[in-house]
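Translate structure to sequence.
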């Protein structure tokens, strides 16, 4: 699986929550379109969406569940039950938030559940220490997904420095988070990532339209 993903583009098919494209049939169409365009794998949120994508295309699926908890800031795949459900729905890889923040279940138990389910684990890190911790639990993939998201202000640029640091740990590294142009996606691989995930710039029409709308408004003022 990791050989198959080497030097490849992975597309995150997560429409804006509650938006007009937030439906399993549309997520499945986005995934098929991404594969037609050259993506090798897709990242998909939610059990119904993973099921719909699995039924529509053969590409490897990185499955996640996002849960909003009252007593924890951890949102991405916080429960072992999420892992069992994502596996049953057809995920090949399961990604989870591995940041050092209060969480409802122990990371050790989550990684054990992933191993027990026979799928690969992808550790969504915010910093080098997250990656080092995830390695101790046997993470198969280290990713930069959470870089810039554990403090209130999201950085505008992707965290290429974290790619370099994680790559030095010697595990398969996926760059993810704000790779909003082809040049930035290519820069991730040049920095040492084994693959790159692009989401918003390909599959969040509202976000991309917003970028253009702001630029057009700013241009009109000149
Ligand atoms: C921080 C967090 O919750 N990230 C989520 C992870 O699944 C998604 O909302 C992102 O869209 C995804 O990581 C891809 O990143 P970008 O959309 O920037 O290409």
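Result:
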């Amino acid at each position: 699986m990791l050989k198959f993903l080497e030097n490849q583009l992975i597309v995150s098919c997560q429409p804006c929550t509650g938006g007009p494209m937030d439906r399993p049939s549309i997520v499945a169409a986005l995934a098929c379109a991404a594969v037609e365009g050259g993506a090798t794998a897709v990242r998909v949120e939610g059990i119904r969406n993973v099921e719909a994508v699995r039924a529509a295309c053969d590409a490897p699926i990185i499955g996640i569940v996002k849960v909003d908890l009252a007593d924890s800031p951890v949102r991405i795949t916080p429960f072992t039950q999420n892992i069992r459900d994502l596996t049953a729905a057809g995920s090949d890889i399961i990604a989870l938030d591995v940041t050092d923040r209060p969480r409802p279940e122990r990371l050790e138990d989550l990684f054990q559940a992933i191993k027990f389910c026979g799928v690969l684990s992808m550790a969504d890190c915010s910093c080098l220490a997250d990656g080092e911790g995830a390695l101790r639990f046997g993470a198969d993939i280290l990713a930069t997904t959470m870089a810039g998201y554990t403090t209130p202000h999201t950085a505008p640029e992707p965290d290429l420095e974290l790619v370099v640091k994680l790559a030095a740990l010697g595990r398969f590294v996926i760059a993810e988070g704000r790779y909003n142009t082809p040049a930035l996606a290519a820069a991730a691989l040049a920095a040492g990532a084994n693959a790159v995930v692009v989401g918003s710039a390909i599959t969040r029409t509202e976000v991309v339209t917003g970028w253009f709308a702001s630029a057009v408004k700013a241009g009109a003022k000149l």
